[in-house]
Design brief:
Blueprint (H helix, E strand, L loop, with lengths): L5 H19 L4 E4 L7 E3 L2 E3 L1 H13 L5 E3 L2 H10 L3 E7 L2 H4 L2 E17 L9 H5 L4 E4 L3 H8 L5 E4 L2 H10 L4 E5 L3 H7 L7 E17 L4 H17 L1 H9 L10 E4 L7 E3 L2 E3 L1 H13 L6 E2 L2 H10 L3 E7 L8 E17 L9 H4 L5 E4 L3 H8 L5 E4 L2 H9 L5 E5 L3 H7 L7 E17 L4 H17 L1 H9 L6 H5 L1
Parallel strand pairs: 1-4, 1-5, 7-8, 7-9, 11-14, 11-15, 17-18, 17-19
Antiparallel strand pairs: 2-3, 5-10, 6-9, 6-10, 12-13, 15-20, 16-19, 16-20
Helix pairs in contact: 2-9, 2-10, 11-17, 11-18
Length: about 475
Amino acid sequence: MKKLPVYLMVFILLMLSGYAKGINSTALTIITENYPPLNFEKNGKATGQATEVVEELLKRTGTKTDIQIMPWDKGYKAVLKQPNAALFTTVMNHERKKLMQWVGPISALDTNFYSLNGSHIVIKTLEDAKKIGKIATVTDYYSEQMLKKDGFTNLQSFPDEESAVRSLLKGEVQLMIDDNTAMPSILKKVSASTDSVKNVFTVSTDLGYIAFSKNTPPDIVLRWQKNLDAMKRDGSFDRIYAKWFPGQIPPGIFQMVTEEYPPVTFAKDINVTGFATDMVRHISTRLKVKDNIRLTSWKNAYNMAVLYPNIILFSAERTPAREKLFWWVGPIGKNSAILYAKKGSNIKLNNLEDAKKIKAIATTTDWFTEQYLEQNGFTNLVSSKDPSENLRQLMSSEVQLSIFTDLTIPEIAKNAGYNMNDLEPVYTVSQTYFYIAISKDTPPSVVQAWQSTLDDMKKDGTFEKIYKSYVPNATMDELVKQ
């Protein structure tokens, strides 16, 4: 092979070094707003949880610039119009998603129900919270409006967060709704320790990111994301997060979300368990992915998986309407959707059309069973957010049928004070498999790794062992082979 002339080699090296220098020396404008405890100015210097994360990223990426604090609207406009600008902490939503490039998440803005630490209050669903004595809210706050819209009648409104938390600390109310970013500073204002209260249920979650302008070089954005992921792997991100939000779940590289759906997923004492939960944990362990499972409402978990990248949602029925919304790992279970009647009702159904002639059928809001009947033209549905309410309506003859899955009905009946002898199956509506759903913006390589690991668990017997520890009489052949 003929060698290149020396002068030509020198020219190429100079060009390459200049290109690399240009990439590394791109001048970035880093902007944030005054929003404690995430970002704020103290003694003329920017500080806060998100600020400390960004400062560490500036060091790791070799970026030399100062963090500018300015009003949110001004910073937002700058990122939309200026090249090489970044704004943190920016909550991703559907409108903003395509307007910017995203690095994160660097914070999780959780709206939670808080109780006194040491209380025995357990909240598994929003419906559970409706049965609690009193819930402190702040007048006209979004969280108060959200609960009112959702039918809460046990709210006690306060003029400010300090008054609300004082009432909680005195035991005058049993719960308070607030977000994890505000609660530590509120407790500090009333001279209470951060461990005076505990989060007992996450109502909604917004993830905060560093939003880069659209015309920032993609390799710069990728370098920032890789360094943030490295911080999460080496523990430095978690240490910063714990400093500002002790006891809270930090946003990892992946966010794992589930609902109360025993025996598939459910809360036991302060832990999340269930056979789908155990499978997710086993996969995470084998892939060396940190377990950060959040128990929340199905609506919140589902919305997160539709919007954000790297969301692990479990478990989810794989329906035609959802097919293109997610990547699918599984199947991890199988169930039958069945129309149940009160024992002795003598209701007979020959097909699904016969069920449309029934006066009223109880369904659970947003569950796939309700969606299935709606899509098949049913207009006689009575929707409730709590499946136990469906059973109560059935047993009190307010409805003639209710739809449940064979996997979940035993636990629902038990929690509602009934047993399976009080019911009789009338018609099997569908038989479906359920899966781990992974958000579409997640790299396909991640999905392949999760599926491959699940397949290995099926081959080595781990899958069957977990499943049968919760459903001892389950038939495994179809599930293991798929």
